[in-house]
Amino acid sequence: MGDRIIRRGRGLASFPQPGLSRRQMIASGLSAMLLAGCSKASGTTFRVAEIHPSNYPTSMAITEMGRLIEGYSDGKLSMKLYAGGQLGEERDTLEMTTFGGIDMNRVSLGPLNSIEPMTNIPGLPFIFKNVAHMRDAMDGAPGRQVLRSLEPHGLIGLCFYDSGARSFYNTKRPIRKPEDMKGMKLRVQNSDLFVSLIQELGGNPTPMPLGEVYQSLVQGVIDGAENNWPSYFEGRHFEAAKYYSLTQHVIAPELLVMSRQRWEKLSASEQEIVRKSADESVPYMRKLWDLKTLDAEKAVRASGVEVNEVDDQQAFVDRVQPVWSEYIKTPAEQKLVDEIAEMGVDHA
Ligand code: GTR
């Protein structure tokens, strides 16, 4: 599945070293650096990777979680946030986390799709009716199942954070119906699911790390991308892509994961502290997220971006049905879809 992903180098560790892949080289170098900073006799510091800046709601939630962890452990456990992508793009840092080079990582669902198929399910287009439905499902049994599905891959799923609804934006024209997307070169996360989604809508998917999107929009390498209000705003993408069309095609959550290797070195009571602190950071994050979304939308609209509703969202829903058939392959995946759908009944 992952073979269809186009990887784009960022120039890191580009020197030849026989026998090691590029990612292994990055990982071994970074691991050495991180572990060196970690061996304080006084306690344990978890290094956390985050691509957003330190004032973004996910980063602030991690900082809050660190405060909680320190309090609950009487200072024996702490967290250090590496915000702004200091440790690399999500897909690379995720791989490092799986083999213990990074302790914790805040990522979106997309980069997890090639690691564990169960993570495709909450990322299916239009599976959630709204944010409240997503929160209910991820706080409940479906969410717990997705978190647990990561364990065989070296990751402990700690909690879900919000990411709002993702919509398309571009430099060309408003998207009102799927036909408006025909031939548009659209950046997607490194996820086959997102590649399929764009293909079904008639666009030309271009997987690329988030950090390259602004420049690629400016240079015309891509025509557009898709994201929530805060990321569209924070990445300054709105300066280059002046049409934001409210397709709201995906309401996938973000995840905070921990390296299983690191997790297994903790005592049961330390594990409990980590889980409790992660859980308690979620409502804190959601409050910040709601405020940030409103602020970002306001700032974007004030900047002169043309924001439009789509003519008929059902037309988009219908067009992406093949994505569902392609990614719901097992009875367990179908069961998860059904459980999520059932929880949506109360969310009109
Ligand atoms: C954002 C998300 C990031 C990243 C980004 C992307 O909404 O918070 O973790 O995945 O989207 O599109 O790459």
Task: Provide a descriptive summary of the structure in words.
- It is a single chain.
- With 348 residues, the chain is an alpha/beta fold.
- 43% of the residues lie in helices and 17% in strands.
- The protein is built from 14 helices and eleven strands.
- The chain has helices at 22-36, 57-72, 90-98, 131-139, 141-148, 192-200, 213-218, 229-234, 237-240, 260-263, 268-302, 313-319, 321-327, 331-343; strands spanning 44-49, 77-82, 104-108, 155-161, 166-170, 185-188, 204-207, 224-227, 243-250, 254-259, 306-309.
- The strands form three sheets. The chain has a five-stranded mixed beta sheet, with helices on both faces. A four-stranded mixed beta sheet has the order 8-5-9-11.
- α1 (22-36) crosses α3 and α2 packs antiparallel against α11 (268-302).
- The chain starts with 21 loop residues before the first helix and ends in a 5-residue tail after the last helix.
Name the bound molecules. Answer: beta-D-galactopyranuronic acid
* Percent range of helical residues: 40-55%
Mean pLDDT: 91
Broad shape? globular
* Structure annotation, total helices: 14
Unreliable stretches: 1-22
Q: Main beta sheet, described? A: 5 strands, mixed
Gap between N and C termini: 35 Å
Element order: H for helix, E for strand: HEHEHEHHEEEHEHEHHEEHHEHHH
Tell me the radius of gyration. Answer: 20 Å
